[in-house]
Amino acid sequence: MAESKSKYVKTPLKTSRVTSAAPYKPADYDAAVFTSTEGLTATVDAIYSSMMALGANVWAMQRRMKIMEALMEKNGKVTTEMIEQYQPSQAERDQWAKDRDALVAELYDPFKMVGTVYYGASIDVPDPTVKKAL
């Protein structure tokens, strides 16, 4: 089989782009904090607060969707006013309470889990200059 000659000529790139990289900075393992042994850090509190707001908004959207579905079944149409004026039946309220409780458990039960292995504690670090967590 004969070698095929490429019709493209390899030439150096013509660019004025700077090609130098920033100097390497090692990670600061001693300052890394995910959760503290004394209790929750401000970061975890912020994450939890965000999760609470997100959960409330998700439930509000799910409830509104349930109203829209009920109105579509009963009337075949939905308007904003119909959604705002909707009064759920007792059976719907009971089912929605179960659905809400299931959502709450799904979103927030992981916060109940208590870990026993601290991040990085089980990692074998071969470099003697790097301190192992806890």
Explain this structure.
This protein is mostly helical and 134 residues long. The protein has a domain at 35-112. 44% of the residues lie in helices and 0% in strands. The chain contains 3 helices and no strands. It has helices spanning 42-75, 80-85, 90-108.
Q: Helical segment tally? A: 3
Shape: flat
What is the residue-averaged pLDDT? 76
- Structural class by secondary-structure content: mainly alpha
Oligomer: single chain
Count the E strands.
Answer: 0
The helix content is 40-55%
DSSP strand (E) fraction? under 5%
Largest sheet: none
How far is it from the N-terminal to the C-terminal residue, by CA?
Answer: 64 Å
Uncertain residue segments: none
Evaluate the radius of gyration: 29 Å
SSE succession: HHH
Task: Kindly list the characteristics that best describe this protein.
single chain; 134 residues; mainly alpha; 44% helix
Strand and helix map with partners:
Layout: H1 42-75, H2 80-85, H3 90-108
Helix pairs in contact: 1-3
Provide a concise account of the structure shown.
With 134 residues, the protein is mostly helical. 44% of the residues lie in helices and 0% in strands.
